[in-house]
Amino acid sequence: MKRTGDQAFIKELNKSIVLNLLRFQSPISRTQISVQTGLNKATVSSIVEELIQEDLVLEVGRGHTRVGRRPVLLLFNARAGYVIGVDLGVDYVRVLATDLAGEIAGAREFRLTDNRTPQHVVESIVRGVHELKAELPRSPHGIIGVGVGVPGLVDFSHGIVLNAPNLAWRDVHLGALLENYLSLPVYVDNEANTGALGEKLFGVGKEASNLIYISVGTGIGTGIIVNNELVRGSQGIAGEFGHMTIEAQGLKCSCGNHGCLEMYASERALVQKYRHLTGLTLPTEDILARLKTGDADALQAIQTVGQYLGIGVANLAGGLNPSLILVGNRLASAGEWLLRPIEQTVQNRCFTMPYTQLRIQASSLGRNACAVGAASLVLHEYFAGPQAAA
Question: What is the per-residue DSSP string for 239-260?
Fold first, then answer.
């Protein structure tokens, strides 16, 4: 419930301010908290004592000072609880447990072959959660929630997958289904959004105010952060640049359009290109393995995919002017074999390139970016302060 002006609201707000300062700047003393927040020392001491009682803050020794008594240092207790982050791919489910600081504490992965029904996926996620829960150390707050990244259009506010073409899902109430099984808060978002959040909060994107995360898997999704905020758009479904048209009379896409970027620059495109060159139908992992052994056809296939992906990146770079573009998901494991043709294409096609300091690189969180970002959805809600009435 939104409130404004009353004492309870002010107390909750101050507590949130102190706790989040401790999350990101501990170890820190009570005096430093008072200085940085503007709260008086008595208020800070009262809040800190409450957080210690809740096991969210620990006293860890004394700091240094030139004169007077050495201050007691406070540390955010990241192991006071755990969060589950889920990366739902087209042919896999990856389930991670992280602590309250985003550090990975365990993982499970399940393959999705012929059965991608919502019920089967939910059962796989629930199995992963239960297995991880059994392995995690005991903690005061246990598992506080679950975040899920999904390849498709998502109504974030209601946890509904509106349309995931590569899963053949429409209007799936994934959040509610999981909450029924797990009795935990569940947050569902587009997987590229969660990848962007993961890199922004816990990866190489920490210092970038404007970044784009491009998830290159069976399809292509983009998570966009502008001025440190995730861009969701008016209906919450911004970022579907994998379905921008790059060939007017191009290949038919699962979304119903023709010539979408993901038909030319995704895992599916890599498999098709390699088959065209060799007559062999191999999974992405095998093609990438052959790439690393010097297979000329694998090299040509990845370069072609990289060139097309570079066209999409050039459009994004020219239109949004980010300082950092990160390539994530499975195809990013190709490393420089994929990044070099992307960078060359962007330099040739993006007229703003000479005027920017754009960096293009692989995701620093690798395969974990989406799941870690999904976990961050839970952390954001858990540590958010109270909301005032509009």
Answer: --GGGSBSSTT-PBPTTS-BSB
Q: How many CB atoms lie within 10 A of CB 262?
A: 30
- Note if the bond before 341 is cis, omega within 30 degrees: no
pTM of the model: 0.87
d(CA 380, CA 197): 10
Name 49's Cβ contacts closer than 8 Å, sequence gap at least 6.
none
Confirm if 156 and 189 have CB atoms less than 8 A apart: yes
Strand partners, 43: none
Cβ distance 320 to 277 under 8 Å?
A: no
Per the DSSP assignment, residues forming a β-bridge with 260 are 245
Q: Over the stretch 22-69, which tens digit does the pLDDT of each residue have?
A: 999 989 999 999 999 999 999 999 999 999 999 999 998 665 655 556
Distance separating alpha carbons of residues 385 and 390, to the nearest angstrom: 15
DSSP per-residue string spanning 177-222: HHHHHH-S-EEEEEHHHHHHHHHHHHSGGGG-SSEEEEEESSSEEE
